[in-house]
Protein 1
Amino acid sequence: MAVVKPKTSRISIKKKKWIKITAPKFLEERVIGESFLSEPAEAIKRTVKVNLMQVTGDIKSQNIAVKFQIADFKDNKLQTKIVSYEYLPSSVKRLMRRSITRIDESFVVSTKDGVKIRIKPLLITREKVSRSVEKKLRAELKAELVKFVTGVSYEELYTEIIQNKIQNDLKKKFNVIYPLKGIIIRVVEKEPDEYVSKKAQEKALAEEPKAEDIEAGIPKTEETPAEAKEEKPKKKAAAKKPAVKKEPKAKAAKKKE
């Protein structure tokens, strides 16, 4: 009689290997790291954050962190695109003094090729300035940066910022208004495709009908102040009892007699 062997399931294990991660073309495709993977497709859309000095080899850029996103696998290398640029907060704190004024700004603007980015510049003056000067510097800074960003592509913008060209050009222009200690681009980051401001989100949430109204099929309506007053039940005034005059004890005794 033949003996039936029990079936055994075989687990196939794919071999993993080290795959190099490279920077974009405008950064000369330098190797910024490695990843241990079985399939290169697993790494697509992952992000890698490195110190800029590691990419450029310039010690002056050690205060800056750059984030890359893996976009493609080609020639046995994982190719990336730049996602954000950040001047380290600890380095910004070292520049601060009591006798100076720090002027921050933050706004969203689109590049020449239609990429929406958020940029956060920082002005540092040599001495404390008045509110009027501060307001003028902030307005001029935003106007100059919007003008510059809208005239260059996404990669050109990062190239200019990493090479410190735009910061030096702005400093020369702003020294005419007031002498500056420095201009720093603190953050440059790509905004999501569906960018919605906080105010728009709050407005949308306020306009949404409540769950109770949806279940009951009652349309949401706004109550006027007059209607709200009418709905409040009025408290009935308690009926007052007629006041009884009390006679003195001496008079009451005489009447009984």
Protein 2
Amino acid sequence: MSSPSPAGGSWGDEPTGSAAGPAVDRPPGRSETAFLLLAGLFVAALVVCNLIANKFVSVGLFGATFVLSAGALPYPATFLVTDLLSEVWGRARANLVVVSGFVASVFVLGVLWLGDLFPAIPESRVSDGAYREVFQSAWRVVAASMTAYLVAQLVDIRLFHFWRRLTRGRHLWLRNNGSTVLSQLLDSVLVVLVLFYDRMSLGQMAAIIGDLWLFKVLVALLDTPFFYLGTWALQRWTGRPPLPVDA
């Protein structure tokens, strides 16, 4: 028998065995495969956000122009993934992926620091100066990102399940957008404050926060059909039934 999962169901894909013999190593089932793929996508999007966050770009959307960090471009995908994880696998597994992303960010910070300890050889295409030009403030970017990310993602998951309980499992669009819009505001405020509190005026930071948050809100609204489609496809492909309202 499978052991119970934190979401209240069954892991369903873990190797099993008996007291008489060793566990059997078998390929993961569809549910575990889909979960791992989404978790991998989440961590990849998070890590690349940190690595490209120092570049600022101008993005046109719905006739408006937004000035924001390049790291904001893939970041909304992390909220879509956690919403899908929450809807299909439950809060406990969504929180597990969020914590995994935090650990991955700490690891990336350590690797960047390690790479700076050793001098570049003369034949290296990337000099010490170029490396530091790109990554010398990475610790601050990652620290800001991790602070905002951990708080906002956990708040997003809590709000998602609040709306889910309140609507008795109905209105996917409300819990998708109701959780993301509020948590993205918290994320935008935290990341800009930690990153630029001693480099910009309050007016400059407020302008960046406004652009960053509005951009994320518009992207969140645009991803609503993908949330519906993703939920339907994942439940159909994995065979997982809808979770209880309080899962």
Protein 3
Amino acid sequence: MPEMCFERFSYIFSRPDTKQGKLDLRADLYLPGNSTGPWPLVVWAHAGGFRAGTRRNRKHGLIAETLAREGYAMACIDYRLARPPAVLTAPARRAMGALIRDSEKWGEEMQEPFRRQRPIAVVEDICAFFKWINIRLEHFNLTGEFVLGGSSAGGISVLNAIMLHDVIGQPLPTIRTGLVLSGGFAYPSFWRPTDTRFLAIHNPNDAHVPFSSVARINELAGDQLDLIAAPEQPHGSPCLSPAEPLPVAVRRLVAFDQRQSFEEA
């Protein structure tokens, strides 16, 4: 059996409110074992329609293995799901009306639960993780350069976190690159220029998250977002087709981020 090129550690990073009390949220941190670092960190939000899914998805370890070989650490995080229902903070509750009205005004085609309270709770949880990790960079030998990525509901959450964190009163450090796999953004009026560059991969025939949810943003974003329309992409996958090896697809994501790093330098 080949030697693992990373070490995995699990930590509780937040205990947010739900209607059944506090909920422990954990992160699995994959640190490269084949280099001394420091490393940039890819933070990954899992798929599952905001109802299910887990940070322990088998593919996450395979993605982390390729990232480790490319000199990246990875964190796969929990977030609050449909059960038990999340209790939002007061600033998020106050913002919900304007967000829902905006999605309706634009005729957003995403499922209704994908644009109401559940995804906003995920933004709070993503911001909580960054608050936790940002004061532990030296401990984990991280550079403080961040990539935020996710699949399906996780991809939606990438866009929501970067565009809406200040709307709901949550701090977020600079995210160099956003990786959006089969995701979308339901609140076009809240799109704004940021320092983040996005790579979105989406099947135009996707039956889970409508292609229109990312195509509209692609028109608004200009050079801020690169959209790959991949007719053979399996939903939520970085692979452009079922035949594409996962390491090849992950290296495409790495190349996109490294291009942003080079341009910043």
Protein 4
Amino acid sequence: MNNKILKSTAEKKRNRFTAFFVSIIFTGFGQIYNGNLYSGIVLLIIRSISLMIIPVYLQIHPGHDSLDLALSSIFFNAVIFIYSPAEALYSSSRVRIIKLKKCNSIFAYAVFIISNIFLTSLSFFIIMNFFDIREIRETSSILFRKGDRVLVLKLKKEGFQRGEMVEYNESGALKTGRIIGAGGDTVKQENYTFSVNEIPLGIGTFDENEMARLALGDYNKILSESYHKIKYPVKVDIEKNIPGKAEPGNLIKNGEFLIAADNRETGNFYRIIKKESITGRIEGVLFSRDFKRMLIKPYLTKI
């Protein structure tokens, strides 16, 4: 009789729906609830690392594209988000009665929940200090449309490179443009083209497959411009831009950038801004109403 009493106090029935829902709220909690301490901790740690590893990697490799990394992280976290409650539901359905362990105490649950909240908050705090998701509200870039959500990587002001597309603040409005020149450069502009330190930027064309990848129209108005290892499209009105006298070169002061729009059909498509105006580097389209436009980056290829 005493053995039966001891057995009944050491075992408890698990509710499979409880295991499922607590795992949705707190990743790994369902595993702890089912008595699988290490599984719950591993899931929590893996999910946290998958979020925090991207900013760490970009600190080491600041020039690396982060759009693919961000999407991989989103996908991986979605898998864990689905797996944790699904596995907790399956385990509790398969083994309804478990032997209670130390991890099945109120104290252990509280410690895990607090740890979960702390790591989740820390992960999102780090992510939010490295990334922003912005809605495109102006059309100076031909690669993006109004309503597109783009991923913006916040970098130190020294981290921006020529040819990259950035977001900057102009009189309270957020705009996009491409860095053509930085401090110490002499930039000349003639019609729609630029030369930097007496070296003209490469101008060419895209084939139909490349244009389709960019989801762009107006084939006759799209040219390619290449800057170092970055190749990107620019839109020009060739009929209006007949050869003429080049403008005097602009000597860019230290702490300033010459920014140009990819859409160069308008007259005033470039400006000089201070580095403090730049809020981040645009990595590409994260979400769009047009599915074909998702994952478009600010360049076609890095050559």
